[in-house]
Write a structure and sequence with these properties.
With 340 residues, the chain is α/β, with parallel strands linked by helices. It has twelve helices and twelve strands. The chain has two domains: 1-149 and 291-340, Isopropylmalate Dehydrogenase (3-Layer(aba) Sandwich); 151-285, Isopropylmalate Dehydrogenase, CATH 3.40.718.10. It has helices at 21-26, 46-55, 97-112, 126-131, 139-146, 175-178, 181-197, 224-237, 249-252, 255-258, 269-280, 315-339; strands at 9-13, 39-44, 61-64, 75-80, 118-121, 153-158, 161-165, 205-209, 242-247, 263-266, 285-289, 295-298.
């Protein structure tokens, strides 16, 4: 058995072709394959990658991916999927939206049949995909729909923090109605299970935010804590979960409170993620929990203003790959333990 048979193979989708995704993915060539704990294959239009590398004067070898390829320094394996239209750095084109989704579909298919151990996603641009007439609210929701997973949980990690969300890409006015007892309970069950399974935390301690200022101030600033959140927490505590809250979001991220937990559960996107991104921007990651596959992602967008400049920081992509490798290795150990 070769070394290649013993290490995870990670599919890396290069995302929106006009954004920074292609160039940060090219910078995976800087990582020494002799010491890497995994191998990766870029899903992209090979000509796009070659043009971007040429324009940036980066000497990177690109070759068609084959399962038997041995790792080579400064060389990247590419699973070629063609663009629909030529792409210019920094200039969005709705015509290429089907290409962006084709990258996701191919990575997902490979993960589901065991070809890849995990998928890592570079950023996509939600607006241009919708401009193409394709309803799209984000990677998380897309992968949930295409795996027929009724509920997934978005969690970001970095800067010593893990922050998961009950609701994701919703207008703020729609959030309260979306925080139902069922949604909260299912989210907490997934989060608790995945912290055990993918992170090896035997007894996860989850800090749960309230929805309203001061966690409702005893009902004077909102009753969601009393009527929805507290009953769910009490019910799940009775099953053995360690759930701390509901906590006021304005003090939840203080060091003494964070020391009491392994993960924060925020009620909505901009309640928890500004703090995490302040602590870790450029090196944080996004993880989708609850899927039948392993998926991690960068924590930033397409950064069109940087596309083609070579100045985009690949730190978040590196962290996402490393996290995917860690999860894949843990999953492989678990499978061996079950069969052995």
């Amino acid at each position: 058995m070769s070394r290649n048979d013993n290490i995870p193979l990670i599919a890396v989708t290069t995302g929106e072709p006009a954004g920074v995704g292609p160039e940060i993915c090219l910078r995976l060539a800087e990582r020494d394959p002799a010491t890497a704990a995994a191998r990766w294959v870029l899903l992209a239009d090979r000509r796009l990658l070659a043009e971007r590398a040429r324009d940036l004067q980066w000497r990177i070898g690109l070759r068609d991916w084959q399962p038997g390829n041995s790792a080579e320094k400064d060389t990247l394996d590419v699973l070629h999927l063609p663009l629909v239209a030529p792409s210019v750095a920094g200039r969005l084109d709705p015509a290429n939206s089907p290409y962006v989704l084709a990258l996701l579909d191919r990575a997902l298919a490979g993960c589901r049949r065991g070809e890849f151990a995990a998928m890592v996603t570079a950023p996509v641009h939600k607006g241009v995909i919708n401009d193409a007439g394709i309803a799209f609210s984000g990677h998380t929701e897309y992968l949930a729909e295409h795996t027929a997973t009724p509920r997934v949980v978005m969690m970001l990690a970095g800067g010593g923090l893990r922050v998961a969300l009950v609701t994701t890409h919703l207008p703020l006015k729609s959030v309260p109605a979306a925080i139902t007892a069922t949604a909260l309970e299912e989210t907490l069950r997934i989060l608790h299970s995945e912290l055990q399974r993918k992170y090896g935390i035997d007894r996860p301690r989850i800090l749960v935010a309230g929805l309203n200022p001061h966690a409702g101030e005893g009902g004077y600033l909102g009753r969601e804590e009393i009527e929805v959140i507290c009953p769910v927490l009490d019910r799940l505590r009775a099953t053995g979960m360690t759930l701390i809250g509901p906590l006021p979001a304005d003090t939840m991220f203080s060091a003494p409170v964070l020391a009491r937990g392994d993960c924060v559960l925020a009620m909505y996107h901009d309640q928890g993620l500004p703090v995490l991104k302040y602590a870790s921007f450029g090196h944080g990651i996004n993880v989708t929990l609850g899927l039948p596959i392993i998926r991690t992602s960068v924590d930033h967008g397409t950064a069109l203003e940087l596309a083609g400049s070579g100045r985009a920081d690949p730190g978040s992509l590196y962290a996402a790959v490393d996290q995917a490798v860690m999860m894949a290795e843990r999953a492989a150990r678990g499978s061996r333990d079950q069969t052995g």
